[in-house]
Amino acid sequence: MDLTTVGYVACFAVLLLLAIRVPIAFAIGGVAVTAIFIVFAFRTGTFLPERAIRTTLSLAFSSGFDLVHSYDLSMIPLFIALGHIAYKAGITTEIYEAARVWLVRLPGGVAIASVAGCGGFAAISGSSIACASTMGRICTPEMLRLNYDPRLATASVAAGGTLGSLIPPSVLFIIYGIFTESSISQLFLAGFFPGILSLLGYALVILLWVRARPEVAPIPDVTFSARDKMMAALRSWPAVTLFFVVLVGIYGGFFTATEAAAISLLFATLLGIFRGHIRWAEVIPLLRETMATTGAIFFIAACAKIFVALIALTGLSGDLVTLLDASNIGPWTFVAMVCVIYLVLGMFLDPVGIMVLTLPLMIPMAETYGLNLIWFGVVIVKLLEIGLITPPVGLNVFVLAAAIEDRVEIGQIFSGLWRFLGIDLVVLLILIAVPAISLFLPMSMN
């Protein structure tokens, strides 16, 4: 049996299972193990299943074991735990409160403050979904209380929540770095300016929206003195400290990304306990939530690693590279094809699932064109970020709707998001056209 044919059939089978809503881990893992078994069973030309069982199990378990024992993968539970601890300690709330006090008199100021709060939370947690859920509970009810248009009140938080994918640290960058063997520290630094650019783009959307229709964001009849503003800014020092621990620590070469995650988690935990926001007894439930989230991510990643072993075994990636060479398409055409594929997949699948499904095939082709994998990773993560708010399955929208207990219909949230999707596409084009935006910090890293 032709090995590449097995690879193509396996990919088609995975897509078919995903189309009927089989969970990504079971689809990828189940198909990979079955296909590997078939390859080894027909190795001599005759079907000999008894010879394939031991080899298949050995390859599957060794692939998953190697991934789970990866040193870099330990960052994921550390940053997820940091997000839970920081929220419980009030650190993430203080970011939003500081932004709200400073921007409340600006047209759409509370919505812009919500985006800024999402950016601050993203700089701590590394998870877009956690960002949308947490900030949705804090920001959206406040905007609805101030008679903001429900579309603006929800869309700004749903879009702002996607910043967790770009602004360091980022769980998606960690997974990308592990699967492509790229420097995770450099990926974190590469996402900083694109994340800030996205944040500024969202703020611009809100300003233009409110300028065109002032009734969507009434200006609250409240003022804050200079002292109030200064005190609010000073109260956000823990969040600023955590951000600089990660960014400056990595950029300055003082410690690795994993060490930055551990130091930040210890700092946030001790600060929360010292300030009385967290009791020792409350740490265990927070860690239990972290374990549940981490377990789901690890399971998907481990199944994906088995799928990578199948791709290598069948030589599918090499066959695709050969087809790409024969097609004579240029690198920018290839990048455009990648964008279309990811935008379409983003309508139906979660970001982690898309990444682990496509990277084994995309990276060899990107290397064929000599594309910088750090820059390519930023483009991929930006595309995945767009998918989080793209109908019909934009995860951030459904997470936000659940967080606010369906006070705003999902259709209304999506109807307010098209403006943010527009600016996301503009930012994406800028990042593709000007790679220096992504590469400046990692290339100047000590």
Write the layout of secondary structure elements.
Layout: H1 3-19, H2 24-41, H3 49-68, H4 75-88, H5 91-103, H6 109-125, H7 128-145, H8 150-161, H9 171-180, H10 184-190, H11 192-212, H12 226-235, H13 237-251, H14 257-274, H15 280-314, H16 316-327, H17 331-345, H18 351-368, H19 373-387, H20 395-403, H21 410-433, H22 436-443
Helix pairs in contact: 1-2, 1-15, 2-3, 2-15, 3-15, 4-14, 4-15, 5-6, 5-12, 6-7, 6-8, 6-11, 6-13, 7-8, 7-20, 8-20, 8-21, 9-18, 9-19, 10-22, 11-21, 13-14, 15-18, 16-18, 17-19, 18-19, 19-21
Short description:
By secondary structure, the chain is mainly α.
Description:
- This protein is mostly helical.
- It has a domain at 72-295 and 381-443.
- The protein is built from 22 helices and no strands.
- It has helices spanning 3-19, 24-41, 49-68, 75-88, 91-103, 109-125, 128-145, 150-161, 171-180, 184-190, 192-212, 226-235, 237-251, 257-274, 280-314, 316-327, 331-345, 351-368, 373-387, 395-403, 410-433, 436-443.
- The termini are far apart.
- The model has no long low-confidence stretch (mean pLDDT 83).
